[in-house]
Structure formats: structure tokens, C-alpha cells
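Example for tutorial group B:
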């Protein structure tokens, strides 16, 4: 059983919950025994998780559930072999979110309908942001040589410099980090505000926290 990424998944019309799980009988347990296994999707403030739990045929007690990592949205279905599987969505790209919505929207519950709107509206903002990654530059204090690649044993003889080859002091670095943090805060605020126009600020903030 795995996170299904192909188009072969057949989404269940009725999505399983902990109170009303999808149960499979005659499930292998160890080398010889057979038992039951049940599947469901758990929804918490952190998002959704795919869960499974087997019945111990020796004690007739349910074992501890196994749970996937959190995603924003999870839908359960069957693969080509008619085995239970699932597909999931988190906040990665607007194209992925739009494709997911177009393909599976008819299966969404109320939580998922709100979540997909927030994801798409937030990604509208994030997709406009361009990130520039610059290599870290070091100057050898003995030779004066400047390089972006140094031996770890030479690190103690080097100091970091900026694009103008000026030494970066702790004060400079702290100022840069604070400026970057403020920029990120404004971007996130704009993304949440864009989603809040449709679903409301409380729901938008919840989605943002789940996606962090």
C-alpha cells in the first residue's frame, strides 16, 4: 500500500472515517494467519493522515494504528489490483493543486473544499515570488584568495565576504537575517490575505499553519 500518484486510482465514493472505516477481510497476518484490516482518513488541525489498523487474530484485539505523514488533503481509493491506496495533496505547486481539484473535486468533503481553495489562492501569491540563491563566498585570511569552495580544514583560516568581497560581520548577518524574515512574513501575510478573501481569515490561517 502506498501513496498512489498515477491515474489508475479509483476513488471511493464514500470516503472512510475512523467511525466508518473501509474494512478488508482475509488480510494476511504473519506467515499463516488471516485477519481484518481497516482503513480511514484522520483529520486534525495539522491536516489529514491515512490510517490503517489490523485485528490481532490471536487476541481479537485491534493493534496500534499505523498512520502516514500529514498532507493537506487525502483521498482513499483502489488501485488496478483492487487494493486500497490513497492520493494526497500538499502545498507544492499551483499546477498540481489545480490538476488535483479538477480530477477529484467531486469527492471532496467540506473540509477539503475549503482547503483546496486556500491552497490555490495562496499559491497564486507564492508562484509570483522569485528566489535568488547566491553561493557563499570566503576569503582566505592568509592568502587573500576568494572562493566559494573551500576545504573544511581551511575553514578556520577563512572569513565570509559579501558580493563586494567585504567581510560579513555578525551585525551584518543579523541584519540580513532580520530583513529576510520580514520579507518572508510579508509574503506569507499576502498569501493568507489572498485566500481569506474567499474562505475567511480563520480558515486561511489554519491552512497556512498546516502547510508550514
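The residue assignment follows.
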Amino acid at each position: 500500500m502506498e501513496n498512489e500518484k498515477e491515474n489508475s486510482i479509483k476513488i471511493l465514493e464514500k470516503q472512510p472515517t475512523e467511525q466508518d472505516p473501509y474494512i478488508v477481510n482475509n488480510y494476511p497476518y504473519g506467515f499463516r494467519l488471516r485477519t481484518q484490516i481497516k482503513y480511514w482518513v484522520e483529520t486534525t488541525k495539522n491536516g489529514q493522515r491515512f490510517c490503517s489498523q489490523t485485528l490481532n487474530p490471536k487476541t481479537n484485539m485491534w493493534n496500534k494504528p499505523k498512520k502516514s505523514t500529514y498532507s493537506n488533503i487525502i483521498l482513499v481509493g483502489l488501485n488496478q489490483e483492487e487494493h486500497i491506496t490513497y492520493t494526497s495533496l500538499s502545498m507544492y505547486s499551483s499546477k498540481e493543486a489545480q490538476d488535483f481539484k479538477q480530477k477529484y473535486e467531486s469527492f471532496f468533503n467540506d473540509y477539503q473544499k475549503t482547503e483546496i481553495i486556500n491552497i490555490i489562492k495562496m499559491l497564486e501569491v507564492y508562484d509570483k515570488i522569485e528566489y535568488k540563491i547566491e553561493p557563499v563566498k570566503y576569503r582566505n585570511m592568509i592568502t587573500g584568495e576568494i572562493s566559494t569552495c573551500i576545504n573544511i580544514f581551511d575553514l578556520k583560516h577563512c572569513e565570509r565576504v559579501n558580493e563586494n568581497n567585504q567581510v560579513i560581520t555578525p551585525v551584518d548577518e543579523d541584519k540580513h537575517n532580520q530583513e529576510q524574515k520580514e520579507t518572508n512574513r510579508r509574503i506569507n501575510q499576502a498569501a493568507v490575505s489572498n485566500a481569506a478573501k474567499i474562505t475567511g481569515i480563520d480558515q486561511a490561517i489554519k491552512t497556512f499553519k498546516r502547510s508550514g
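The chain has four helices and eleven strands. Compare this with the pattern of hydrophobic and polar residues in the output above.
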